[in-house]
Amino acid sequence: MSEMEKVYNPSEIEARIYADWEKSGDFAPKGAGEPFAIVMPPPNVTGALHMGHALDDTLPDILVRWRRMLGDNVLWVPGTDHAGIATQNVVEKKLAQDGRTRHDLGREKFIEEVWRWKEEYGGRITSQLRLLGASCDWAHERFTMDEGCSRAVREVFVELYKKGLIFKAPRIINWCPRCHTALSDVEVEYEENAGKLWHLRYQLAENPKKYLVVATTRPETLFGDTAVAVHPADERYQDLIGKEVLLPLTDKKIPIIADEYVDREFGTGVVKITPAHDVNDYEVGKRHKLPALAIMDTSGLLNENVPLRYKGLDRFKARELALTDLEEKGLLDSVQDYENKISRCYRCHDVIEPYLSPQWFVDMPKLAAPAVEAVRSGRLKFYPERWSKVYFDWMENIREWCISRQIWWGHRIPVWYCECGEIICAKDDPQTCPKCGSDKLTQDADVLDTWFSSALWPFSTLGWPDAAADLKKYYPTALLVTGYDIITFWVSRMITMGLEFQKEAPFHKVVIHGLIRDEHGKKMSKSTGNAVDPVELIKEYGADALRFTLASMATAGGQDLKLAASKVLASRNFMNKIWNVARFVLLKLADNKFSAEKSPADEWILSRYQQVIQKTDSALRNFYFGDMALGLYDFVWNEFCDWYIEMSKLGLHKETFLTVFNGILRLLHPLTPFITEEIWAKLGNAGKVINANWPQADKALLNPAREKKMAVVIELIRAVRNIRAEMNVAPAKKADLIILCGDPAVAEALTEAKPYIQQLSGVEKIDLAARLAAKPRNASHAVINGAEIFVPLDKLIDLQAEIARLEKEKNKYQTEINRIKNKLANKSFIEKAPPEVIEKEKEKEKDYAEKFKIVEEQLKALAAS
RNA sequence: GGGCAUAUAGCUCAGCUGGUUAGAGCGCUCGCUUCACAUGCGAGAGGUCCGAGGUUCGAAUCCUCGUAUGCCCACCA
């Protein structure tokens, strides 16, 4: 038997145990049980493990370990995401250190560079997942740009293209001038902005003394204006419709048009129309056949379509200059403060530019219906249910999904253009044009949105497009666990693609958890410096402590989790507690002195144990991770350790002890896999706990009568301890105890428990009587359910203190009695409440009344003495 | 402009389907080197369950309104 330190030290143990699990193939699917598959949300290859991942992977690991112990055929598929823009940014930054850009390398060399980078650093996140204890099957590890995933992407693209569900068209899209690419709508973040509303004067061409006032938040875009618009029914401007204004700072004339889009109430009711730089204006422009004049390049610098003075200026510099110039010319009418939203790139946070350009789109509006129906019908459920609302809101108002990105790292769009004008979309690279036979084919330069390959993850990782055995066995997967922040990015698109290509949604259940925040509820981020590094926490407290903390905070409502170091510390202490129970067991096994018979404490803990099994099961079935963790914490610490072990020190029944403690290890294993595995081995159990059977509750061991008796015993011990503490009886001093108990059942329970009472309340002599000739003098007194107790004191009793104690007690009972009396006096309560509720109230009243009477008598006795 | 969520002890939160003596962890007070554990043990203090109405025999729990906070969505310059 190996030595165990007093303090649990996880670091060496965790590394050793994980290596053993992995080496032994303990994570591989096996057995004839039901298939139970989960795909891991693939973290970015560029990433390091953050608290979000820690939660995202702890929760499924709990489920996966649980199902494995239940005998299911469990597959948890790990993998990483190529994370197009993010990864490209990282590698570009690295190049920048040597003063190089990706253009210096050229596309091919640059991509090679990224692959090299991925080989070298991409393993960091997966090694960190191992630190966390994630029991995923590494043999199934995938990468969104590996061979199989790439084939799946092409297959899907080509199929959708053929059906017209993927197309290329000019649209106003979200353009990031820093990343030089288009973004989808979900990749844009909005931020409150204390901006200005500038009122500009557009002079009438026919009479420059007159002018229209146009309100805008973006004066620099005026160079792209190709009209100003008013509402067709706006009386103020009726006679101006069809006439022209002079575009300020230029020598252009642009028409005044009428369009219902204009809000008469807003500003002056006159809008500048800039079709190339605003979504709404683009629509207006189309209706009125206005030209769309782009005035910016892809970096957000003004181009040749503006007066020379502004050409090459950054958009914000150009704004300043334009405003100065307008003011000088007397064309700046007024300026107002104006609150609006500013859109930013979710990657680099640069300000997004609405930009007219041809891009590739998935026609989501045509694909969405089955995905909505799957959830409406209940075939696919969100937990908690309210998240389905977010899903519906998104899916029922879905727009075209812009999937082309003007970067280099990613799945290249499988479309080629022939010099004859033919467009070829193919799964395999075409050599010649099927129409003209030319071999001068140029592939589309763009790559796909990273989320395009993520959308296929549940089936691409299982071997599709081949008719793979894994796909057949594990699709649809059992469930998905993820944060609410990617319902739109990922969940909705996986459901859509799963239904389109597999005819079934990729999972039946979506378990949504909250987001990790710092202690004060602030979003964790590197820039604010409040991010907690899970790897650091694991180093300091152990992976089990971190996992236990995260699970205990993942409550039924799915609220955000505020992570405080004090909580991890508390979990660490709990691990230490368990560790020390194990040390205790080992000591006792070494002593080899056991009781032959089960004691009342044994019966009691066995009964409680059955209930904790049931509670744990039901918590897991409902994804109430917090309930599971807290339920086990409470059972282990407050029942098993505080009462059962303490009582067992009088005589330990080996079988009961080991049954319950091994049961605890198994129940805790999904939460805290390392320490339970280590202790499992130390106790000499066969095999590993990771492969052990999940405990089954045995109803025959439920023992309500024993629990009731034990409740009285515990109440009595607490009462004695309370007296000792309050009356300052020295802890080492053995006291006497006189119990006055007229209830034979209670008397029996207490008699039986005499050794426990002596052991746990520091009492030597116990007298139990049905009645007393005279109540003891100079004794402190308390009343419990069915009995009253006296603790004679050496020194003269502190009358004041004793009276104060009893008065407090009396008042408490009085309050309760009054409450219940009122309730019972209420006629409608008696008439309408269920009989068992009334019965319960009456019983309570009786108990309180009895206690009240006893305390009152005692007070009288004290007063008389 | 829509929607969602939250408001319970000093702090962070449980309390899921109305009946609890309203709980936990941390913190606080008092006392303990009790032979598994001071990362511990024992005993305590601490709560108008955000406010106002309502439903009900009964509300922290359900409904309405309000206040505060957080988040998401939305093309009004």
Automatic annotation (TrEMBL):
User: One GO molecular function term?
Assistant: valine-tRNA ligase activity
HAMAP family xrefs? Val_tRNA_synth_type1
| CDD domains (alphabetical) | Anticodon_Ia_Val, ValRS_core
Instruction: State its role.
Output: Catalyzes the attachment of valine to tRNA(Val). As ValRS can inadvertently accommodate and process structurally similar amino acids such as threonine, to avoid such errors, it has a 'posttransfer' editing activity that hydrolyzes mischarged Thr-tRNA(Val) in a tRNA-dependent manner.
| Entries under PANTHER family matching the protein | VALINE--TRNA LIGASE, CHLOROPLASTIC_MITOCHONDRIAL 2, VALYL-TRNA SYNTHETASES
Its name, as the record gives it, is: Valine--tRNA ligase
State the GO CC annotations. cytosol
- Family indicated by similarity: Belongs to the class-I aminoacyl-tRNA synthetase family. ValS type 1 subfamily.
- State the EC number(s): 6.1.1.9
The organism encoding this protein is: Termititenax aidoneus
The residues that the entry says bind ATP are 526
Q: Where is this motif: 'KMSKS' region?
A: 523-527
Q: What is known of its domains?
A: ValRS has two distinct active sites: one for aminoacylation and one for editing. The misactivated threonine is translocated from the active site to the editing site.
Q: Which gene encodes it?
A: valS
